[in-house]
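Troubleshooting: if your tokenizer reports a length mismatch, compare your output against this known-good record of 210 residues.
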Amino acid sequence: FKTVGLFAKEHNIRITCHPDIWCVLNSDSQSVIDNSINQLKYHAFMFDKMSLSQTNYNLINVHGGKRNNLAQLIKTINTLPDNIKNRLTLENDERSFSVKQLHEVHKETGVSLVFDIHHHSFNQDSLSAQEAVELCQSTWKEKPLFHLSNTEPGNESGSFSDRRKHSQFIHYIDPYFLSLIKEDKIDCDIEAKQKNLAISDLRKKFDICC
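Known-good structure output:
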């Protein structure tokens, strides 16, 4: 772990993780919350062994969890050990929590928000993409990290399930979001099924330097 962490620092690699969908910090079940915290402890343990800073430059990213349960989410986050809480970020999703809702959690916990522009298209909560981006940016002290993905072309008028699936490649980017990438104001996780091929394609298609 220490060797990996040293390599990352030497080569300016930002290491992040995204615990699975069963990590729910505001479940109605205390056992689910306890298991979720154990999962976060595991990720924080790895980051500690890599000697990564206890900041959200190397972030542990989760979704808000159970809909309409903000009070429990705030309560759980505020009981987390520092090596988890200082790295924790919350990501908006297409069903449970919008950017606007998660911003209320940020105000009570200090946890930064990872903006997912694809999820936002399903759950805008009266915010434009630019407004949502700027609200999320305001929660960061480190350089923000956001998510970019698309609906697969041809599925735009399909079912909710089809529209929410990540596409093979990135086909379109909101102009404001693209400007932030090009100006190096955000780091961006590309969530496309073709992985490194999608990143290479995106750089050429949208004239983004390495």
